[in-house]
Input
Amino acid sequence: MAIDLITRAEWRARAPRGTYDRIDGTRGVKVHYTGGRVDPATVDDHDLCIAAVRGVQRGHMDGNGWLDIGYTAAVCAHRKVFVGRGPHILPAANGAGFNSGHYAVLGLVGNSGLTVPPDDMLHGLRDAIEWLRREGGAGTEIKGHRDGYATDCPGPKLYAWVQAGAPRPGGQPEKAPPFPGRLLKYPPATSGADVYSWQAQMRDRGWDLIPDGSYGPRSREICMAFQRDSTAHGWPLDHDGVVGPATWRATFERPVS
Output
């Protein structure tokens, strides 16, 4: 599915008390947890997730004296990504001296109550990471809050996931399905079931693409971004926005990173 963003207006965020420091990008993303109790009922009641995020903001502003919630984004058990400070804004949650290097993304699990991140939360964290790479200039690093800062955050379960490379639950197929035998490209728009299959796989990898079976300008734009990202991870692809045999294989077989 495409990233499911919950805007600040939708979660009824308080306005910041001052002006944000802006950044061009980061080396990557650091993953956090709440460090307290998270009600297990949040898994079944999304309104409780909204209340939890509002509670985090309240603690950061009224308790810590920060100008706003300290996280770039927060993710709940329903694969929803709450916009915190957002892309290109310096976070506060990584600790003094550590904020400019990484965006800060919170998973709504804690050290009691809900301690094991559900699969949809892990997908949501990946969605947030990919979003920050596309929209915020985040680099490829994925680390835990404890990497470089003395803390237990993000807890044993989330940190083990981070150390494993932050994979999407279920991983990727071992082999790509057979190449459809024609190039998927625009213009003109290629259409058909093979286009839908490619778009659906890209969506499931976290790219903001809605499968409709028509390879139009948005598909070409996403394809070029994927090709550039794949090249940075050792998959030498042309950055031409055309789904040929090599790009097709990388779409299905390249590990999520």
In short: The chain has two domains: 4-163, 190-253. Residues 68 and 170 are 35 Å apart (CA to CA). The domain at 4-163 is CATH 3.40.80.10 (Lysozyme-like). The first helix runs from residue 46 to 63.
